[in-house]
Amino acid sequence: MTETSHDIRTLNGLIATTIDSVDGYTAAADEAESGRYADLFRARAAERRAVSETLRAEVTRLGGAPEDDGTILAGAHRAFLNLKAAVTGRDDKAIVNEVERGEDHIKAKFESALADTELSVPIRAAIQSAYRSVREGHDQMRDLKRSLETTA
């Protein structure tokens, strides 16, 4: 039997980060003033749910227990953002800035996993496939943030 614990740990870390992303997009959709942004954030949350399910299926295939919760750090970050929002108020530009910051985080997590030389070839391929979606979301939010900066 092939040793899969490293692959499972890596996948579960990415699943937790992806769940954080789903939660972040859902919160952003709830806070957005513009329906256009809310729809965009909901679509990204759905796409990230699909990424998470794909990675969870890989963990199951390897015989592991897939992660089903986000990270503790993300929970603390959301609590801080909720407090910050209550004190200062938030507009769409501030929300997009926070979403883009979260996108930088998830992209870095996937890039770190892809740089891991201990991953098996099939798991690296699964992560690479999921990363394409993550990179697309990151680039979309980066471009949205830049467009809002130029219109200010």
Oligomer: single chain
What class would the helix/strand composition place it in?
A: mainly alpha
**Helix content range of the residues, please?**
over 70%
- State the order of secondary-structure elements, H for helix, E for strand: HHHHH
Q: Can you count the helices?
A: 5
Give the termini distance in whole angstroms: 58 Å
User: Which value, in Å, is the CA radius of gyration?
Assistant: 16 Å
State the shape.
elongated
* Average of pLDDT: 86
How would a textbook summarize the main sheet? none
**Strand residue percentage:** under 5%
Count the beta strands: 0
Unreliable residue runs: none
Can you tell me about this structure?
This protein has 152 residues and is mostly helical. The protein has five helices and no strands. Helix 1 runs antiparallel to helix 2. It is elongated and about 55 Å long. The termini are far apart. The mean pLDDT is 86.
Topology:
Layout: H1 5-31, H2 35-61, H3 72-88, H4 92-114, H5 121-150
Helix pairs in contact: 1-2, 1-4, 2-5, 4-5
Search tags:
152 residues; 5 helices; mainly alpha; 0% strand
Compact overview of the structure:
The protein is built from five helices and no strands.
